Each structure stands twice: as C-alpha cells, then as structure tokens.
Predict the structure of Ricin-type beta-trefoil lectin domain-containing protein.
Amino acid sequence: GGSDNGDQLSFDLEPSNVQIEPGRAVFVRARLKPREIIWFGSKQERPYALAVQRSGVDPQSVEGTFVQRGFLPGWLATVLGMTLALAIAFVVIWLSYKPDVRSLATEQMTEVGAGKIPAPSPALSAPALVTPPEPSAEGKAPEPEEPADTGDSDGAGAGEKEKPAAGGGGGGGGEEKAEEKVELVGDLIVGVASGRCVTVPLKKGEARDGTGLELRDCDAGAPNQRWTFLADGTVRSMDMCMDVAWGSVEDGAQIQVAWCSGNPAQTIVRSPDRDLVNPQADKCVDADDHGTANGTKLLLWTCTGLDNQKWVVKTA
C-alpha cells in the first residue's frame, strides 16, 4: 500500500498482490495522482511512502517524493493578467469618451439668431414712420393759440401752413409703406397631382423658422404661396429659404422653410422633368403618401417620376 502526509495523493498499484517464486523478482507498477490540480503557481513536492510486505515478514517501506507542477505555465498567467488589465482600461476609456458636437450646435444657433435680426425690422419701421404725424398734428394744434395771445396773426398763419405740410408728408409716407408691404413677389408652385399650391403655414400671421411646408388651395393674393427661384439655387418665400430639415438625405425628411444660410440643404433646383431636386441628397420634393388634400405635408423622397413629385411654376 501507499501513504502520504496530507492525504493529497491517490495510489494505484498494478498488480496489488503478486506471488513471487524463490529467486525471482517481479516489477509492480505504482501510479500516483494528485487529488487537486494546481492551475497556476510553482511546483510542489509531496513526500510519500510505499509499503511492501512479504508473507510472514514485517512490511518494508519505500519512500519517495512526488513533484506536482502547475497545470498552466507561469508565463500564461502573466499574459492573461495583462490582457484583463488592458480590457478593463479599454472599457473605461470607451464609457468615458464623449464626442464633442457642441461646435455644430453653436453654429446653427448663430445662424438662426443672425437671421432673426433683420426680419422684424421692416414690420417695426413701418409703424414708426406712420405714427409720428398723428402726435405732430395734435402737438401743433395749440401752437397757434400762443402767438394769438400776443396779437401776431402771422405766427398763427404760419402755424396753420405747417400742419398740412406735416400731415401731407406723413400721410404720403404711410401710403408708400403700405403699398410696399402689400406688393407680392414671386410665382406659385402648383402640384401636378393635386392642383394645389406649396404653402408656408403661418402662425399669428408670421412665417417661422422650421415650419413644414404643405399643400393648400391656391390663392394668388397670399404672400405665403409666392416663391422666387434665385441664381444661387435657393427657393425663397416670406424672406426664408426652402430647406431640408437638419440637412438630412434620408427619405421622409421634412421640407420646411428656414433662415437662409447657404447650407446645401437649401439648394432646390428644377429639373427638365418638372421635379424639385435637392442635389445634396439627389432626391425630390414629394407630396406625402401621394396626398392631394389640403394640409398634405411635403417630404424628401427618392425620385420616382410620379405626379406627386411633379411641380409647375405659374405666374400669378
């Protein structure tokens, strides 16, 4: 039999019993196996003893040392450790990395802000020129009374002459501004399939940046249906440009009006086949879902040659 100090080895003897004739010798194969595997680390030495007993004689002990090595080589543990450390570092860097898109957002906000500055000025300047004559006429009414108390009739007459001059000048300026405001510029863009016009929806009577375009019954007197095709490739109405929302090139992107910025998304050209094409996306302005009713939205879509993508420019 066999034994070791910590009961960490198992012994397998082949054969376990043998009969030996006098003067003969027999070999016995002894196989030792560790009960636990050492995966990593240095080798370990385990002393053991085998007892050989002959019939009628005290057993004789044969001692030895079993050397157990690690199952995996030592350098592999180092490589695995370094690989794990690199993987953890990569995950930490990946999670902490945030792409900086603030510069693009700031640029868009700047364009919108700059575009809004001149837009309200015409609306504000018109009442500013029209309203002064009213208080000036009222303010000059008592002026003749002051010289009348002094007995100077010429002063009163001069005051009377100034009133119609001021009133005439103020009234004439107001009429000119009113005519300029009412003047309509541009043509109608009519859908071939619907017979309705491309329209800028108004909010409280004003066009707003980012408003999606739609189809409405044509009205030659509506400024929000008048469009001007300029040499720079833009199509303009209400002091804004026809625009593909967010500069998208994907099907379904909204066609809208936005403050003119020179962005490629605001280049809309007419093709010989009566399409309105955005060259950046190489796609057409499309009436959503082949719609023809009032309120049908306009989208960017792959050019199909169908009538819901055909447009006629008519002079009103």
User: Anything to note?
Assistant: The helical segments are 74-96, 102-116, 120-130, 133-140, 145-150, 153-182.
